[in-house]
């Protein structure tokens, strides 16, 4: 056994690491802004206009945040009898990498639209996305958390 018993759920699947959860939350940041704007009724449209001045970028952010939200939901639903959910989660690592690449292209496009002018928000976003893709590619625990558990009865 490679990991401590506390790192497995009740069905024998390895739990997702905290850094992966934080990465998924970062990928779904447009959803967080959208929910916060919805909760603050009176100033919600001002918040959305300040964070996303162009509504198309909000929609792209919401669309590119969906895979992370879906994986956060589906990883808790894994069970030996749920083969379709297990198949989706098994491909979750590559889906997350694809989402990171899409969001990197989106930030690069925004930088292009701003004529290459340096902004800390774009730089930090690209740095976090770079760290996240390296983490997804190199972490053994991330690879293992998307795998099926070995059944002792087989």
TrEMBL record:
For whether the record's keyword set contains Nucleotidyltransferase, the answer is no
Transmembrane residues, as ranges?
12-36, 56-74, 94-112, 118-137
User: Which InterPro entries does the entry link to?
Assistant: DUF2919
> To which species is this protein native?
Vibrio ostreae
Protein's name according to its UniProt entry = DUF2919 domain-containing protein
Kindly state which keywords UniProt assigns to this record, in alphabetical order: Membrane, Transmembrane, Transmembrane helix
| Pfam families according to UniProt | DUF2919
């Amino acid at each position: 056994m490679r990991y401590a018993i506390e790192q497995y759920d009740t069905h024998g699947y390895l739990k997702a690491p905290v850094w992966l959860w934080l990465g998924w939350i970062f990928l779904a940041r447009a959803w967080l802004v959208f929910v916060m704007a919805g909760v603050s009724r009176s100033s919600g449209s001002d918040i959305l206009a300040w964070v996303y001045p162009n509504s198309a970028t909000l929609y792209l952010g919401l669309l590119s945040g969906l895979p992370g939200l879906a994986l956060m939901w589906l990883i808790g639903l894994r069970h030996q009898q749920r083969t379709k959910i297990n198949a989706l989660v098994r491909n979750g690592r590559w889906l997350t990498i694809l989402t990171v690449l899409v969001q990197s292209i989106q930030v690069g496009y925004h930088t292009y639209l701003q004529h290459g002018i340096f902004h800390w928000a774009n730089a930090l976003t690209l740095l976090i996305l770079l760290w996240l893709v390296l983490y997804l590619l190199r972490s053994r625990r991330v690879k293992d958390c998307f795998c099926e558990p070995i059944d002792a009865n087989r």
